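queue> pop job 88
queue> type: inverse folding (structure -> sequence)
queue> payload:
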């Protein structure tokens, strides 16, 4: 008789995990108020303005500029901080592709850095080894909400005169040494895309404590206008990247309930980590007292196939999903440098990239291999999605029990 659900047995968990997004009548009422106001654009309404102020204050930043999405936030952050054509930008290879494509869009050259296998964030020592006279910026990614080692990053930047642009797309409320991320460097970008812990379907935010960079970012997002200029006077090469009032209204409501969600995710993550610590072949990321808050957009598990009879990561995840642990996921299946777009001629476009003819040695990303990053993508990293961490303690116990069940009956996976 089969024991594992994937082999025909009874699933361990019958109840679904909390779905996402979570919304109430408060979001409905907020959108309805915008509709009936007739002020649907942020240049006429006040919802986006209020959200910018509220979110920047929550994230310990002096300036917040709301934009249409997180990718645009990164692109404008690079430009506002003075990164341009031919500049090299250090970034981890284990991240969403937008970290790299945002740099490419402004004409910069992504230089991929390996991750620390114990944290899944950028390895500062490897970043230091890749610095050249053309290196202009470093982009620490606070992956899954876990802050990168900002002490080491900021020290490296100071020693080499680098701009620090935080990719905090997944890090609402995350903190390093008690200070929220996003504006610890020169400027940072946040995302409110549909899967994110605060969401309006789409949306993004730029955060900075630098008034000059903040003013430039605002102008870039608002067609090149300036605060004291005429409406139809345009002073820098910007575009219309403004967030709309509907999204601003929803995000204000989402932000109000977020502290409670953050606390619940952190508590469940700590509880889950204690349970997983007893399982051979499953480990979690290294704790660090300087990480004083973690958004846990993703809870990372590291999988060792040897402890499961050599069963590959993909098969293990299918077995977990069959047991009713539906939110388990393999994460980024490719490092950014192995993405088809990064290996294609001219990045898949009919014309060369902007740095063509400017940078003396255009990169060949087919030659990049970063051991810790490759291992995370191919064999090791397993993601628990943030909505699962909004469940009760039984929901966390079921994750642990499902893993133990699969390990106990791993022989049943050989024929699947």
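queue> result:
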């Amino acid at each position: 008789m089969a024991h594992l659900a994937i082999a025909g047995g009874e699933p361990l968990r019958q109840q679904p995990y909390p779905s996402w997004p979570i919304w109430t009548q408060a979001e409905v009422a907020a959108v309805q108020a915008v509709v009936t106001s007739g002020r649907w654009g942020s240049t006429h309404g006040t919802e986006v303005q209020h959200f910018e102020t509220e979110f920047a204050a929550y994230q310990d930043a002096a300036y917040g500029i709301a934009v249409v999405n997180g990718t645009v936030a990164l692109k404008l952050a690079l430009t506002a901080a003075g990164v341009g054509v031919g500049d090299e930008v250090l970034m981890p290879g284990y991240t969403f592709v937008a970290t790299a494509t945002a740099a490419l869009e402004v004409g910069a050259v992504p230089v991929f850095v390996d991750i620390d296998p114990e944290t899944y964030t950028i390895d500062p020592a490897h970043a230091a080894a890749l610095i050249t006279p053309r290196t202009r910026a470093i982009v620490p990614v606070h992956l899954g909400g876990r802050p990168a080692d900002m002490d080491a990053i900021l020290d490296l930047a100071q020693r080499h005169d680098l701009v620090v642009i935080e990719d905090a797309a997944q890090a609402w409320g995350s903190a390093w040494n008690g200070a929220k991320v996003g504006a610890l460097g020169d400027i940072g970008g946040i995302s409110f895309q549909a899967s994110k812990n605060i969401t309006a379907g789409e949306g993004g935010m730029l955060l900075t404590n630098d008034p000059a960079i903040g003013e430039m970012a605002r102008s870039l997002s608002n067609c090149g206008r300036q605060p004291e200029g005429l409406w139809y006077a345009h002073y820098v090469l910007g575009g219309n990247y403004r967030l709309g009032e509907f999204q601003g209204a929803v995000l204000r409501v989402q932000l109000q309930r977020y502290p409670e969600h953050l606390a619940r995710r952190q508590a469940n993550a700590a509880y889950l980590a204690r349970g997983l610590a007893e399982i051979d072949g499953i480990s979690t990321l290294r704790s660090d007292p300087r990480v004083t808050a973690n958004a846990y957009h993703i809870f990372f598990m590291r999988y060792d196939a040897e402890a499961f009879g050599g069963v590959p990561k993909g098969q293990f995840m299918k077995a977990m999903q069959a047991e009713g642990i539906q939110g388990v996921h393999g994460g980024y299946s490719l490092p950014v440098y192995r993405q088809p777009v990064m290996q294609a001629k001219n990045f898949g476009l009919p014309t060369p990239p902007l740095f063509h003819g400017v940078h003396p040695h255009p990169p060949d990303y087919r030659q990049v291999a970063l051991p810790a990053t490759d291992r995370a993508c191919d064999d090791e990293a397993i993601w628990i999605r943030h909505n699962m961490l909004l469940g009760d303690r039984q929901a966390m116990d079921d994750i642990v029990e499902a893993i133990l069940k699969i390990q106990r009956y791993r022989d049943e996976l050989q024929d699947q």
